[in-house]
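Two proteins were folded this term; both appear here.
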Amino acid sequence: EKGEIRRHPRASMGVARNLGKTELVQELIISHHEPGYPRARTREQAHSFELARLLRLADKVDALKSKRSYKPGFSDSVCKQLLLEEGFKGELIDLFLLLYSKGSNY
């Protein structure tokens, strides 16, 4: 499952391209796990793109809250602590956790 997780930004960008989505949307999709993968950008390069960072936060909240084959779903307090350690702002974390709890599609 971890391999699939690492491949999904490129695969999702391909889907967006095939659907005729703009280059901005494609860039947001492929950049939402940076720094790290798939392009190994530095934190400064990746976090200068704030929209991708918001998408990354939404994706992280979903990943942390969801039960996976290799981990349980985490509580809001555990999620918040992990996200704060990654440098996300508390107010944004609280908002995304609230949206998640309400079943919002962000």
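Next, the second protein.
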Amino acid sequence: SYFLKRLRLQSHRALLSRIAISERLETFDNKQSASYLQHHLEKAELSKEVIDPEAMELISAASAGNPRVLKNLSRAAWIAASEAERMRITSKDVRTAIPRVPSAITS
């Protein structure tokens, strides 16, 4: 990856020597993204119905299947829904959240 190539430059060797493990996570497809979010909703004792299907698709697309972005974007969408005094995340909430998450993909 670009990051690892940069770290291998002589000027960054000291930093590279402090990194013990490097792992690249594969991205999720739409089904895996939904499953990932469902797992976290269940851990929080929430139902899947708190995210509209259209919002789920938008979260998956804007996160590009990256688990960290998926989680951050979902959290930002939940905050947007809360600010609008809704108990359900809609696509409007996701569109509001996208600019708040720097790593989210804007369309």
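The chain has six helices and no strands. The helical segments are 2-7, 13-17, 30-43, 53-63, 67-83, 91-97. These notes refer to the second protein only.
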